[in-house]
Design goal:
The chain contains four helices and eight strands; from the N terminus they run ββααβββαβαββ. By secondary structure, the protein is of the alpha+beta class. It is globular and about 40 Å long.
């Protein structure tokens, strides 16, 4: 059963569904070297960005993930994205992932988006634990997670990326 994506509204932001019209911004967010320096992903093309938007739709329809495009209240142009994905089979655990245009970094935007998504994940979806995988060198991401109460998970490693630290937050 597909769950309609809720629009999450914060003081400065709208978190909304990512749609085909967002193609150029999705391509930018997934291919920009600054944004993706800690992410192990094959080189991106516009075709892979189209496929990614389709995957987001499929994941929403099959309740495997929920991804929001982050926009300011002044503009509908994507400045980043944030998602809950990698749901456990029992739907008690999810992983959060995010990216943000470098022009908007360091302004508290991702913290504002993360707070809204955590609230949704815990209080609307009923997740008990939300995890985040981040590269040990990604200081801003680690700082963001700690600021929101995430703690490093010592008992788990990312088999796909030894550079990642896994953080978690319980409801």
């Amino acid at each position: 059963m597909a769950i309609p994506i809720p629009i999450l509204i914060t003081e400065r932001l709208n978190l909304r569904k990512i749609v085909p019209a967002d193609l150029e911004r999705v391509y930018f967010l997934r291919s920009n070297t600054d944004i993706n320096k800690y992410i192990k992903r094959p080189p991106q093309t516009r075709e892979s960005a189209i496929a990614h938007i389709q995957l987001l739709d499929d994941n929403l329809r099959t309740d495997k993930a929920i991804a929001w495009g982050i926009t300011t209240k002044e503009s509908n142009i994507l400045i980043g994205s944030i998602c809950l994905w990698n749901f456990s089979e029992d739907k008690k655990t999810a992983e959060v992932g995010y990216n943000l245009d470098p022009k908007f970094q360091g302004k508290g935007i991702m913290g504002e988006a993360l707070k809204a998504v955590l609230d949704y994940g815990f209080n609307q979806r009923g997740f008990e634990t939300i995890e985040a995988y981040t590269d040990y060198r990604n200081i801003p991401s680690k700082k963001l997670l700690k600021l929101h109460g995430f703690i490093p998970r010592e008992d788990k490693e990312d088999a796909d990326n030894q550079d990642n630290i896994i953080y978690y937050l319980n409801r």
